[in-house]
Amino acid sequence: MNTSNAQQGEQVLFHCLIGNQSPNIRIVFCKEGDEVHSLKAQQEQLSYSVPLTVMRGSSGTYTCGYQHKDNKNRVSNSALGTPLNLSVTGERGGTGVQANNTQAPQTPGIVEDLALPPGMSPGR
User: Fold this and answer.
1) In what ranges is there compositional bias, type Polar residues (predicted)?
2) For the chain, how many structural domains are there in total?
3) One pLDDT digit (tens) per residue for the chain, 124 residues
4) Among 20, 38, 87, 108, which is most buried by a count of CB atoms within 10 Å?
5) What is the 3-state secondary structure (H, E, C) of the chain?
6) Do 29 and 14 form a contact (C-beta atoms < 8 A)?
7) Residue 13 included in any domain
8) How far is 97 from 12, CA to CA, in rounded Å?
9) What is the pLDDT of residue 1?
C-alpha cells in the first residue's frame, strides 16, 4: 500500500480518475471503506478531485469508486480503487499546493492519488 505523509493544517487533494463507463452517475470518495464525500458525475468527465484540510483524525486509508447505470438502467457500484494511506504528522502553519503521488489502479479504470504540498515526499 502506498503511504503519504502530511502535517496537520496542510491541504491535500484527493484525485480519482475513472474509466469510460457509461453513464457514470456518482463518484464516491471513501475513508476506511466508508463514504466521506461524493460528487455527481458529469458527462464525459473522467477526473474528479476533493480537497481535504488535514487534521489529527485525517489519518487513514482512502479510496474512490463510482456508480454507473447499465443498459437496463440498473445502478451498479464499481469496486473501490487502489488504497492510499494518509499518515498525519505534527502541525504546520500554512497550506500547501500540490505534488502528485500516483499509483497504478487495482480496479481497471480507477486511478487515485493524493496531492501533497511542495517539499513533502510520499513515504513507503
Assistant:
1) 74-88, 97-106
2) 1
3) 677 888 888 888 888 888 766 678 899 999 999 999 999 988 888 889 988 889 989 999 999 988 888 889 899 888 888 888 999 987 665 433 232 333 333 333 444 554 433 333 333 3
4) 38
5) CEEEEEEECCEEEEEEECCCCCCEEEEEEEECCEEEEEEECCCCCCEEEEEEECCHHHCEEEEEEEEEECCCCCEEECCCCCCEEEEEEEECCCCCCCEEEEECCCCCCCEEEEEECCCCCCEC
6) yes
7) yes
8) 8
9) 61
Enumerate residues 6+ apart whose C-beta is below 8 A from 121: 5
Q: Which domain holds residue 46?
A: 2-116
Kindly state whether residue 64 falls inside one of the protein's structural domains.
yes
Cα–Cα distance measured from residue 81 to residue 35, given in angstroms and rounded to the nearest whole number: 13
In a domain, 83, yes or no: yes
Grid cell listed for 73: 438502467
The reply to whether 122 falls in a domain is no
For residue 36, what pLDDT is reported? 93
Q: How many CB atoms lie within 10 A of CB 115?
A: 21
